[in-house]
Specification:
Largest sheet: 4 strands, mixed
Helix content: 40-55%
Structural class: alpha+beta
Radius of gyration: 22 Å
């Protein structure tokens, strides 16, 4: 049976920037004879981005995505099935608060899940309404930042995957870069410095309402055991914005590695740098550790980080053989199982 397409309630108004903004972006994807430039769109989006975020088309897309993803309820216990009714009665107020820059997100619900390698990972589950708004923000911020991201960044990006990252790592080793600098950041998503992150977001985004909204999401309280704890650092996983914000911050690491002409593969906070000699690897480990801790205020986990041979390390669940043309080894399938794809 075909599933009916979810619709945003009629009370949610249409796009504010009709004939501008979004259309100029679409028309620049190959249409001829269009006088509106890409630069015109970006300039307008940077200062009137909130109007784009709450446009009917963008909210409809965000609503469909959130409803289809389902997911657990936040601190208000509202399910995705209840979202439509809530919007029918409260959207005018919510929209006005977003436009005025006075909207306040609710706290996120703390959940801990086991990590494959041991320990736990903390998630912060936003309310369904806040997931909707975050998704709408993500849909407009993504096109502003994506074009500038590194080709060696693979995590949470359109058309990119962990499989591509692992294959790129294998090709680096096949090309003679047979030492790896495996850097692990300590509790990355829990330790992100809000001021540093927001300064990077503000390089592209000039709409102060959007900047205020993003900071409000970063600082939203953490609800656990009936107690709300205020957050002064971190961007907990669990909301639609978190992956994009992490890429915005770590893009500075990517640019530094590119400036130094290093070969690397990064997937979210997992980053491997490939070099030819042990001496070079040790030098890179020391300098990049200093860069992360001084420039981005991120702590490197010395116990998990290492300079080593690639075939002695695991990257995104895969190891590789020591051969000149390495084969990938899936940790989940055991030591005897190798990937046949070596392209």
């Amino acid at each position: 049976m075909a599933r009916a397409k979810a619709e945003v309630p009629e009370e949610i108004p249409g796009a504010v920037l009709e004939g501008r903004g979004r259309k100029s972006r679409e028309h620049n994807n190959g249409a001829s004879g269009v006088t509106v430039t890409r630069e015109t769109y970006w300039a307008e989006a940077e200062t009137r981005l909130m109007e784009e975020i709450i446009s009917r088309a963008n909210m409809q897309k965000a609503y469909n995505r959130v409803v289809s993803n389902k997911g657990a309820a936040g601190v208000d216990n509202m399910s995705t099935g209840q979202l439509k009714g809530h919007l029918q009665t409260d959207w005018p107020r919510i929209k006005e608060e977003l436009l005025n820059g006075t909207y306040k997100p609710q706290p996120v619900r703390k959940v801990e899940i086991p990590k494959p390698g041991g320990g736990t990972r903390m998630l912060g589950i936003p309310t369904v309404l806040d997931r909707l708004i975050q998704q709408a923000v993500h849909q407009e911020l993504g096109p502003l930042f994506e074009p500038g991201f590194s080709a060696s960044s693979y995590g949470f990006r359109p058309g990119k995957s962990a499989h591509q990252a692992v294959q790129a790592a294998r090709k680096a080793v096949e090309g003679g870069l047979r030492w790896v600098v495996d850097i692990h950041r300590a509790q990355f998503f829990d330790r992100v410095n809000h001021d540093i992150l927001m300064s990077r977001v503000a390089r592209r985004i000039k709409d102060k309402r959007v900047l205020h909204l993003i900071r409000s999401y970063l600082q939203a309280g953490l609800f656990e055991g009936g107690v709300i704890t205020q957050r002064v650092e971190g961007t907990p996983q669990g909301g639609p914005l978190s992956p994009l914000l992490s890429n915005i911050l770590l893009d500075e690491l990517d640019k530094e590695l590119e400036r130094r002409n290093h070969t690397f593969c990064r997937y979210a906070d997992d980053c491997n740098i490939y070099v030819r000699t042990q001496r070079s690897a040790e030098r890179v480990m020391a300098s990049i550790t200093t860069f992360l801790e001084t420039r981005l205020k991120l702590t490197v986990n010395q116990d998990k980080s290492a300079v080593d041979r690639p075939w002695k390390r695991i990257f995104l669940g895969y190891g590789m053989t020591y051969h000149r043309t390495p084969k990938l080894k899936n940790r989940e399938k055991g030591a005897g199982s190798y990937q046949s794809q070596n392209q």
